[in-house]
Amino acid sequence: MKQKMCKRWLRDFHAFFLSVILAISVAAVLGCSSSDDAPIFFDRTVEIEAGDATLTCAVKDDMIACRGIRYAEPPVGNLRFRVPEPRDLEGDIDATKFGSVCVQNDKTGSEDCLFLNVFLPEDAEPGDDLPVMVWIHGGALIQGASSVPGYDLPALVKRGVIVVTINYRLNAFGFLPHPALEDATGNFGLKDQALALEWVQEYISDFGGDPGNVTIFGESAGGHSVLSLLVNAPTIPATLFHKAIVQSGSYSPAQMPLMPSNPTEASKPNGYFYLGLPFANVWTVHSAGPCGGTNVDTEIRACLRSLTVDQIMDTQLAAPAWSWITPVYAAGTFLPKNIQTALTDGDVADVPVMIGSNLHEGTLFAGLFLEQFGYMGNETQYRDGVSALINPTGMDPGAEAVAQAAATHYLTVAPGTT
User: Fold this and answer.
1) Would you place residue 328 in the very low, low, confident or very high pLDDT band (cuts 50, 70, 90)?
2) Residues 49-88: tens digit of each pLDDT
3) From CA 20, how far away is CA 161, in angstroms rounded?
4) Share of the chain above pLDDT 90, in %
5) Cα–Cα distance, 29 to 149 (Å, whole number)
6) Which terminal residue of the chain, N or C, has fewer Cβ atoms less than 10 Å from its own Cβ?
7) Residue 392 φ/ψ region, left for φ over 0, alpha for ψ in the -120 to 50 degree band, beta for the rest
8) pLDDT level of residue 26 (50, 70, 90 thresholds)
9) Separation CA 156–CA 379 (nearest Å)
10) How far is it, in rounded angstroms, from Cα 237 to Cα 266?
11) Mean pLDDT, to the nearest integer, of 133-142?
12) What is the DSSP letter of 256?
C-alpha cells in the first residue's frame, strides 16, 4: 500500500512540481505577494499614456502594475509555428488583469498568450530613465507563465527598477522543428522573447524606463533562454539588452542540432514523437503522425496549423519517454550555434553576465526518475537516474562525465543517502 501511495504521489508530483518550483526558487529575487494581497489585486487604477495607447493600470502599495499587454498578434491559425508578428501599442487597453497563459503540458492554457506586464514605481515619469529588468520565467519550456504567484508585485520595483515579465510559447507551439516550416528549427518561443525585448526598446521610456539599460534575467528554462539570447548575438540587435543574469540555466549547453532527414534509427534520441516527424528534432517521416501521408511542404504546414491544441499535445504527450524540450540550432538560422560552441568561439553578446545555480536544485528533477529507476533504491539506480537527467540521449560522453561527477559530489555532500 505504501508503495502504491508513493507512486501516486510521484505521478502527481511529475505533473505540477515544475510550476511550484518557479514560485519558490525566485521568491527572494522578485518578492512574493502575501496571502492578504491574493484576493485584492489593486487599490485603485491609473491611466498611463504609452505609444498610441491609454492603459488603465492597477495601483498597489505605491506600485503601478500594467498587466496583460499584447506585444504580438495571437499566434493562431496561419500564425501558428511562425515568427511572431508585433502588435502596436494603441487604443484603450484594460491592463488591470493578466493575459492568458500559454498552452501548458497538461493541455491547459491558450495559444493566444503573447502578453507582457510592466511594473513600475507610482511616481515614475517618462524621461526618468529607470533601469529595466525583463524576467523570463522557467518551467522546462513546457510550463509556467508571467502570472505565476511570486512574479506579481515584484520587490525590485521598490528599489527603483521597472520590471517587465513576459509570456512566450511553450511545448510544441514554441519549440517544434519541422522541415516544412518557414524556419525548420522552430524556436518560436525564443523569437517571442526577442520580440518582447523589441517592444521594451520601443515603449519602455513612456513608462519611465531607460531602453539603454535593460537586464534580462531568468531561472531554469528562463536562464537557459537568457543564455540562448546571449549567443543569438549575431542574429538579433545588440541593443535589445545590456546585462544578463542566469539562475540555474546552464543545463544542456550543447542543445540539439538540426538533424538531417531520414537519420538512422540509432541516431534518434529517446522521447521523439511525430507530428508528421519527431518533435525533439527534425526527420522527414511523413508516413506517421496526424500530418503524415504527404511530402508537400505547403500541405504539411496547412495540416500542422489545422490541428487542435489537444491533437498537438496528445501527440507530444505520447512520447515513449519524458524528454527535455530544447532549442534547435543550425548555421544561418535564428540560433546559429549551440550555447557551448558559441561561448567557446566567443560569439556571444559582449555584456556583463551574472550566473549561478540554486543549491541542489537538481534533486527535485531527479525525483522525476524515481519510478523509472526503481525509486533509486541502490547506487546503480541512482547513478542511472542522474545520467538520464543530464545525458538523456546517452550519446554525449562529456555529459556522461558531468553526470557521474554530479552524482559523486552529491553523495559526498549528503552522506548517508546510500
Assistant:
1) confident
2) 999 999 999 998 899 999 999 999 999 999 999 999 999 9
3) 26
4) 46
5) 13
6) N
7) alpha
8) very low
9) 43
10) 39
11) 94
12) E
- Note every long-range contact of 6-10, with CB atoms under 8 Å and residues 24 or more positions apart, other chains counting: 6/375, 7/371, 10/367, 10/370, 10/371
Residue 126: predicted pLDDT: 95
The Cα–Cα gap between 249 and 358 comes to 10
The strand pair at 90-95 and 130-136 is best described as: unpaired
> Which single residue is written with the C-alpha cell 503601478?
64
Residues 253-280 as b or e (16 or more Cβ within 10 Å = b): bebbbbbeeeeeeeebbbbbbbbbbbbb
Mean pLDDT over all residues of the chain?
Answer: 80
DSSP 361: T
Rounded to 5 degrees, φ, ψ at 318 are -85, 5
How far, in Å, CA of 409 to CA of 412, rounded? 5
d(CA 101, CA 300): 27
Are the C-beta atoms of residues 240 and 197 closer than 8 Å to each other?
A: yes
Residues written for the chain? 418
Q: What are the pLDDT digits (tens) for 242-255?
A: 999 999 888 778 88
**What does residue 56 show for φ and ψ, rounded to 5 degrees?**
-90, 110
Q: How far apart are CA 416 and CA 418, in angstroms?
A: 5
State the Cα–Cα distance between residues 324 and 221, nearest whole angstrom: 11
Regarding predicted confidence, which is higher, 305 or 40? Answer: 305
Q: Which residues, 6+ apart, have CB-to-CB distance to 389 below 8 Å?
A: 362, 365, 366, 368, 369, 403
Nearest to 365 by CA among 395, 326, 324: 324
C-alpha cell at position 225: 533562454
Q: Look at residues 246, 219, 247, 76 and name the one whose alpha carbon lies nearest to residue 144.
A: 219
Helix or strand run (H / E) with residue 209: strand 209-219
What integer pLDDT is reported at residue 271 of this predicted model? 31
**25 sits in which H/E element:** helix 2-30
Query: What DSSP element (H or E) covers 56?
Result: strand 52-60
Closest residue by Cα to residue 324 from 7, 118, 18: 18
Q: Which residues pair with 256 in a beta bridge?
A: 328
pTM above threshold 0.85: no
Percentage of the chain surpassing pLDDT 70?
Answer: 78
Amino acid code (one letter) for 273? F
Q: Pairing state of beta strands 52-60 and 63-70?
A: antiparallel
Q: How far apart are the first and last CA of the chain?
A: 24
